[in-house]
Write a structure and sequence with these properties.
This protein has about 350 residues and is an alpha/beta fold. It contains seven helices and 14 strands. β7, α6 and β8 form a beta-alpha-beta unit.
């Protein structure tokens, strides 16, 4: 995969004046679709089509970035072994709405995949096998999305990602991320610690069923390697080392995530990420009974739990055979449970 898109070097300009019309070419499309939770919102994604039918790999951009503009392509992209979906997060250059830092913007990713499953069948080998890859802000998305959708992704890659948004808020010496966190979440962590927990992949690690490959630069300034390290400490406590692997790139990281990186280090990262995908080509299924953490919402193939606020965290104990669900949480006042009907 190409990692340049995760460097977060630019703040893309909003494209409000442009007509929202789908654009097509042999190997690249720009597609608009609607949010399933907020149908009035028009969202955007860029689709890079493979040279032959393949698996789906979906990605999100860096914190301050957006997807690239439409480019007419008459040859396959360099990662032509995948149908790549580049999702423009809500409120960015091409998409309507307001960013909410791992809130409903993660459901937008799922909506994008479901659109592609329906409209690009000729490009897909198995619609049930979907991979996720993200870096920087997209890496923060990776940690959270596999916790909020525990059976959706067959494998995932998180690079230089945020695992704890309270920690990141405190580490932001320049204030280049705090200003958006205050707006996108709605307040600083001192005011509502649970709202920051509900967006943090670290808090959802107990839910993770997706095989995850993590990479982080040892000396990264903007997202310190401490984020990956504390995540891996918790992985070891839970005995999940077979499901989660970590590569720390020695001496890598300045104010650019891959600053000082040697080509050999980047090659190793690419290979390990690809190995994690190639190793896992089977859809994930949750157990018939168990416990999940609910951070604003939890969506599985079998059922969904939607809390009355994205800023709250709860726990659901479930038994599918008995159709029993119990939701508990100190701050939870209301919630909705939906049992899904599946075609087996």
């Amino acid at each position: 995969m190409t990692f340049e898109k995760y460097e977060d070097r630019i703040r893309a300009q909003k494209r409000d004046g442009e007509q929202r019309v789908n654009q097509y070419s042999p190997y690249c499309d720009l597609i608009y679709y609607n949010s399933s939770i907020h149908p009035e919102l028009s969202l955007a994604m860029r689709i890079l089509k493979p040279r032959k039918p393949s698996h789906i790999c979906v990605t999100t951009h860096g914190w301050h970035m957006s997807i690239p503009a439409f480019t007419y392509m008459d040859t396959p992209h360099e990662d032509g072994d995948y149908l790549i979906i580049e999702v423009d997060m809500r409120g960015r250059a091409f998409s309507e709405g307001k960013p909410d830092c791992n809130g409903w913007e993660l459901l937008d990713v799922i909506d994008a995949v479901n659109y592609v499953r329906k409209h690009y069948t000729e490009c897909i080998i198995d619609p049930e096998v979907v991979y996720f890859e993200g870096g920087s802000g997209g890496g923060g998305n990776a940690y959270a999305i596999i916790g909020k959708f525990p059976d959706f992704f067959a494998a995932a890659t998180a690079m230089c990602g945020i695992t704890d948004y309270t920690l990141w808020y405190e580490q932001d010496e320049l204030g280049e991320f705090r200003d958006e966190l205050d707006v996108w979440i709605g307040f600083p962590p001192q005011t509502n610690a649970e709202a920051y927990q509900s967006r943090s992949g670290l808090a959802l690690l107990d839910n993770v069923l997706t095989p995850l490959f993590i990479a982080h630069g040892e000396t990264d300034i903007r997202v310190p390697a401490q984020h990956a390290r504390i995540y891996m400490e918790r992985v070891q406590e839970l005995g999940m080392q077979e499901r989660v692997s970590y590569l720390e790139l020695e001496g890598v990281g300045t104010r650019e995530h891959w600053g000082n990186a040697k080509e050999e280090q980047m090659r190793q990262m690419r290979e390990l990420s690809e190995q994690n995908r190639r190793k896992y080509k089977v859809p994930i299924e949750i157990s018939g009974s168990g416990v999940f953490k609910v951070a604003g919402y939890l969506i599985t193939k079998e059922f969904s739990v939607i809390l009355d606020s994205l800023d709250k965290v709860a726990q659901v104990t479930y038994d599918l055979e008995q159709n029993e669900f119990k939701v508990t949480g100190e701050q939870v006042e209301g919630y909705t449970i939906v049992r899904h009907i599946r075609n087996r």
